[in-house]
Amino acid sequence: MTILVTGGAGYIGSHTVLALLERGDDVVVIDNLSNSSKVSLERVTELTGKEPTLYVADILDRHVLRNIFSNHTITDVIHFAGLKSVGESITKPLEYYENNVVGTLVLLHEMLQAGVDSLIFSSSATVYGNPEKVPLSEECQTGGTTNPYGTSKLMVEQILRDFSLAQPEFRITCLRYFNPVGAHESGRIGEDPNGIPNNLVPYISQVAIGKLECLSVYGNDYPTPDGTGVRDYIHVLDLASGHLAALDHKAEGSPFKAINLGTGVGYSVIDLIQAFEKAAQTRINYRIVERRAGDVAECWSDSSLARQHLGWQATRTIDDMIRDTWNWQKNNPDGYGS
Ligand code: NAD
Ligand code: WQD
């Protein structure tokens, strides 16, 4: 199989490219490197002995996509490319809708034109908005997103659902990721955020290495066991294998599927701090501050549909996730710029 991976130089993309190459697929990547470095793919080659074909280009450029589909016999597309910062999406809504929604439309047009009819889309638990209950199953209501990033994911899911009705030969799987963390166990590829991280695990990691002084814990008065926010953290290598499972099971069931990728277990901010202190053998300096606007108390998955439909379930524990994050951070204190 030859898989086109959009956004394949990014965090989840690079780990998925590695897993695809390891199992013998050919991989073509299109990435404009707006939030990544091609060093990630060089390291994938170092780890696998195989090289993905990289097009440094924008998915909004339909001519490049057309070229890719005519130069390679693409069997499937995994679509990671997009912008992902919740806060930035509030100040730059047009960029977010253009990259995430228009980018997907351009890609779909070109897939249709080229006769490539298998797509896996990076969706997010954010489509559930403020959860009415946990665990979140795919039957829970979507909507109520509070920022353009989340709304863009919801819009793309709706577009894909409508498109699958018009093109029933297509096989489209929206994978709703919960909170991806961790890194490849080699410590050679991992998450390399620009500037000060917004997400919890990269932030704690930079406190542990001494780049940041103190973690602000956003609220300890939530109705959770220790009062801090609870999330479903999932190892990026488990996510990568979830994409392989989705490719393997694409022909089963209906043309459009939306499936959670989570572990089904929630951990609090304090749990994560403690796991990090154990892995890094250091104290994590933190202070409790006000809640962050838009945060929910708890968000964790019912992951049974992935088990039923994809024969997939996460296998790595929270200690694995934090050990691998720490291994990546300490070997690459400045990410790919190290
Ligand atoms: P990332 O930023 O590391 O990867 C995205 C990649 O897409 C980057 O390499 C970036 O350069 C590229 N890109 C962005 N816009 C592009 C465009 N117009 N043309 C070509 N390339 C473009 O992010 P990630 O964490 O690997 O996330 C991958 C996908 O998963 C995204 O769609 C994201 O919204 C989604 N997702 C991420 C999370 C998370 O917490 N990391 C959670 C749920 C869903
Ligand atoms: C986790 C927990 C915070 C930072 C975001 C997006 C979501 C998805 C994944 C893409 C929460 C707390 C955090 C800090 C803290 N991305 N926290 N101090 O908010 O669950 O999800 O990333 O689709 O759409 O919204 O992840 O890592 O930011 O926060 O106390 O400095 O850590 O309040 O309880 P979140 P996160």
Overall outline: globular
Number of helices: 11
Helix content: 25-40%
Q: Look up the CATH topology of the domain at 2-181 and 233-263 and 300-314.
A: Rossmann fold
CATH class of the domain at 2-181 and 233-263 and 300-314 reads Alpha Beta
Largest sheet: 7 strands, parallel
Catalytic activity: UDP-alpha-D-glucose = UDP-alpha-D-galactose
Pathway: Carbohydrate metabolism; galactose metabolism
GO molecular function: UDP-glucose 4-epimerase activity
EC number: 5.1.3.2
What do you see in this structure?
This protein has 338 residues and is of the alpha/beta class. It has a domain at 2-181 and 233-263 and 300-314: NAD(P)-binding Rossmann-like Domain (Rossmann fold, 3-Layer(aba) Sandwich), CATH 3.40.50. It contains eleven helices and 14 strands. It has helices at residues 11-22, 39-48, 62-71, 86-91, 93-114, 148-166, 200-208, 236-248, 269-280, 304-310, 318-331, and strands at 2-6, 26-31, 53-56, 76-79, 118-124, 171-177, 179-181, 215-218, 230-231, 233-235, 256-261, 267-268, 286-289, 298-299. Strands 3-2-1-4-5-6-11 form a seven-stranded parallel β-sheet, with helices on both faces. It has a three-stranded mixed β-sheet with strand order 12-9-14. The protein has a two-stranded parallel sheet with strand order 7-10. It is globular, with a radius of gyration of 19 Å. The mean pLDDT is 98. Bound molecules: nicotinamide-adenine-dinucleotide and UDP-4-deoxy-4-formamido-beta-L-arabinopyranose. Nicotinamide-adenine-dinucleotide binds next to helix 1, strand 2, helix 5 and strand 5.
